[in-house]
Amino acid sequence: MTRIRSFARIATVALAIAVIAVPGFAATGSANFKTVVAIGDSYGAGFESNSLNEHHSIYSWPAIVAKQLGIPLCTVGSSATDNCFAQPIVSYPGIGPELTLMDISTYPPVIVNAPGQGAPLNVTFGRAFNNVSIPGANVADTLNVTGTDKPVTRGVQQLAQFILRGPVSEVDAVSSLHPTFILVWIGGNDFLGSATNGTIAGLTPLTTFTTAYGQMLDKLVATGAGVVVGTLPTNPIAVPFFKTVPTVLINPATRTPVLGPTGQPITLVGQTDVSPFVGQLQTGSLLTLPAGSLIAQGFGIPSALKPLLDPTNKLPLFGTPLPDAVVLTPAEQAALVGRIADYNTAITAAASTRNIPVADIKGLFDRFATGLNVGPFHLTSDFITGGLFSLDGVHLTDIGYTLFANEYIKAINSGYGTHVPVASVATFMQNNDPATKMASGAAAYPGMMWIMSDEASKSLSQMFSVISTPTSRRRALH
């Protein structure tokens, strides 16, 4: 259950007044949408709640763009000769498996892994997929990772086996289809693996990023197709993974800070930027989602408070500092944001010299951070209840991917003089949507406390550990 929204029980009548565009297709201008393809990473694949599966890949942002262009999505039974937009299809609960919000009849709710594992369903499809976005891929991987890499040592290589299905890279695979238009969003994994593991050590060097991005675009432009790219988000607090767990101790019963002997909130203990580099967290520090399950075991709580808060030794790890892997210090954040800003400069410069329009994804995430209105509805980046991010706290919901796709549609229309309508989100806002409830039928609501099971927390950490880590202009098409 991944599309948890704070607007559960929105009356159906409200949809009638929503000023939201409906699907359709009317395009003019210099773009040719005969054969549309996409390369990218987990966002392009429609990865959601720690899982790649058929329930959400149909809402990958490239799939949404394709549908707005009037291109149907291929199904498991589609033929290679069918005029459809082909993507890898993985059975539910997917490769993950998908995180699920449960009600255990006691407070608070718990996030767990759905039982079982999914499997690819269309590996014998007779041509390259139109969308070969591979979760975990970085910019260089679009050129270098193939479907036959040996040995397979990275998560992106494992997924490439059934997404690329041969000795070709993402760029090679889409080029084999003789595309007329190429959708590109890549670069998140050049920083995400580091950020989600509380470090800056694995950030891709700027020169490596810039060189790889330029080489990728040169190969894509050489196909004669139209191209559109997008910038990267630079605001960590736009993403629930980094903004949800407080840096002070919270009483789950009252949802308020626990006050210490001085009457002040109790700041948790972990990594700092000053010697001895472990102590009470600095103002502005961020904790990642897996920190929540650690705090529940006693991590991060000052050891001096044990006689007061844990006199019967129910928490054997009480007083153990939070590990570096779940803490982003202010200095780390500054370095991270600075590097991503440099990546964006490289992206826009590379696009400018090749007359490629750029979707403002950075701006979209900045709006996520403050909340945005879609018709009469207010969406936020709040964990579980905000409507934009899924239960892994990093990847978007179906609504979020739709808004992401619309930024690309705007860039295409601006850059190529087309009139492609943006996608509607009305279908996600039906009255009493079952996805807004937990297993017991109780509705999710803002401010609800939660805890992630150890299994789900470890699954989430493992997933991220394998992820190593516009001016209007037109291009003449061949």
Report the CATH architecture of the largest domain.
3-Layer(aba) Sandwich
Task: Provide the low-confidence segments as ranges.
Answer: 1-27, 431-441, 467-478
Shape: elongated
Query: According to CATH, what is the topology of the largest domain?
Result: Rossmann fold
pLDDT average, as an integer? 87
CATH superfamily of the largest domain: SGNH hydrolase
- Classify the secondary structure makeup into a structural class: alpha/beta
Helical stretch count? 16
Query: Rg from C-alpha positions?
Result: 23 Å
Main beta sheet: strand number and arrangement? 4 strands, parallel
The level of helicity is 25-40%
Question: How many β-strand stretches?
Answer: 15
Overall structural domain count:
2
Distance between termini? Answer: 45 Å
**At the first level of CATH, what is the class of the largest domain?**
Alpha Beta
Placed side by side, the strands forming the largest sheet appear as 1-4-5-12
Q: Note the beta-strand portion.
A: 5-15%
